[in-house]
Amino acid sequence: MEIIYHRLFKVDIVEQEVSLQEFAENDNVNTYIMELLQNVSDDEGDREYLFEESSLTMKTYLDQFINGEERDITSRNIANRLLQKETTAQEKRAHLKYPIQKGMLIISYVQMTEFENKIVISKADYNEFIEELTGNLSSGLPTKKKIFKAFIANVSNNGEDNEITKLVTFDSNTTKASYWTKNFLELEEVRDDEKNTLTAYNAVKRDILNPLRKKKEYKADWLCLSNATIAYFRGEGEFDIVHYRDSIIGNYQPMEDSLEIDKLKEKISKLPEKYKFDNKFSKKPGVVKDRFKNTIKLSEEMDLIIKHDVANPKRTFKAYTNEGRKYIAILSDEGYEYAQKQQTE
User: Fold this and answer.
1) Half-sphere exposure in the Cβ direction for 27 (13 Å, CA)
2) Where are the domains of the chain?
3) Is 274 helix (H, G, I), strand (E, B) or coil?
């Protein structure tokens, strides 16, 4: 990776000022930017976007930037545009507790490979940035956490023409700022939330849950993971592929020892690219029609009904064989008394 061009601007909404930032600690600046770009450029982004059909300003700026047309002027125009859009957004959200913060806008043009470049526009916390350069940063935050927002445009370079092939963003805030994507960058989502929700859920069913359901030894684990997945998708809030992978699936303790959770997590990581849905989006619970599954058939005469998630399934259920016959043992004082009574009678 090689930085072709970069500029840093302080965007101060309180002072209504945009100022080019130059530092004596140039090596520190380059190190910071390289670490930030490495994390941001390798990231798949939260969502994929297209320029709005009516987009003129930002698309024109980026085309000028790619073609090398007065990059210094274009960079300042981009910074001024951000200040303008942040000011308008702040006026609309004046009643909110947390105002838009003063930031360091970092505009970079990076060569990734012989045939691929990236434009990276990111906004970092200004005070943290300054503290990092002077060596006084005490929070120890990883580089990726230092940025509020980022925009990445993949640029294909075939030697003759430079063409933008993919636009992605990510936002470290739980509540995504529409002024950043819609007003400032003039972007619209490739996929809406309903399509994302349905595509992601069907992908999980197809590649993660259904293979477990087809194997007898994993039936109980399939039931638990299926219910956890349904509960997650049918709950309000944000879908996050990393949270689903690491918390919903990753923290599960299998009842069958041969079930390898790490392999499931690897498969989950590949789903967004394989089935074309975004890594993060607002869930639309109504499109998921599957319901909580709570019944396991034990025999023609009996079903096991699970009312809600079992906190410690390995301790609650035991499978064993005796004289070639298969049994299930369930931790239950009431069940024990019932079984003991049946044996006595």
Assistant:
1) 1
2) 2-189, 193-294, 310-344
3) helix
